[in-house]
Amino acid sequence: MFNFWGINTVLFYRWQKIFMIPVWNKIANYWNKPFLTIIILLIVLFLDAIREMKKYSNYVLLTLITQLAKEMGIPVENEKLQQTLNEKGKCENEQALEEDNQKLRKETEKLKAELKKISNALSKATNEVTAVKKQSEGLKREYDRLMKEHERLQVGGCGSLHEQNVLKLC
């Protein structure tokens, strides 16, 4: 709670000092005391107002300093916000990359399965080709043998085929 009694006593002593000035007595002869009192009261109030203004002018200075400090903190806050934004962007980018990785993994699995099918088909085809080659070599040998036998029969003029088989066995 504000102490008005202390202010009244201070003001009372101030007024006593003002009225004890020797200049007052010299001026009092020329002017009316109430009029002079009002003028002095206004001067004192004016000086008191100036004193109060000086007292609270530090408040304005403090306000300016705090505003300046806040403005100095804005770049730091801006950097923090940029860092969080970059981190968020990285997170979104990482999520997109993770999704792409999953898609690529699925695609590689599909391609591996397809490659396995194709390699199995290729091995079957190579096995069939080797089997056909062996079979064709066997047929070629048999054909060559039959051709030689046919040639011998035509040249030799041997009897029947049965006789030739008998000769072979001998």
TrEMBL record:
Coiled coil start-end: 94-156
This protein's UniProt keywords: Apoptosis, Coiled coil, Endoplasmic reticulum, ER-Golgi transport, Membrane, Protein transport, Transmembrane, Transmembrane helix, Transport
Transmembrane segments: 30-50
Subcellular location: Endoplasmic reticulum membrane
BP GO annotations: apoptotic process; endoplasmic reticulum to Golgi vesicle-mediated transport; intracellular protein transport; protein localization to endoplasmic reticulum exit site
Bap31/Bap29 cytoplasmic coiled-coil domain: residues covered: 106-156
GO CC annotations on file: endoplasmic reticulum membrane
Record domain BAP29/BAP31 transmembrane: where: 13-59
Any Pfam family hit: Bap31_Bap29_C
Topology in the lipid bilayer: Multi-pass membrane protein
Family of the protein in this entry: Belongs to the BCAP29/BCAP31 family.
PANTHER family in the cross-refs: B-CELL RECEPTOR-ASSOCIATED PROTEIN 29 (PTHR12701:SF5), BCR-ASSOCIATED PROTEIN, BAP (PTHR12701)
Role of this protein: May play a role in anterograde transport of membrane proteins from the endoplasmic reticulum to the Golgi.
Protein name, as recorded: Endoplasmic reticulum transmembrane protein
Organism: Gopherus agassizii
Phylogenetic lineage: Eukaryota, Metazoa, Chordata, Craniata, Vertebrata
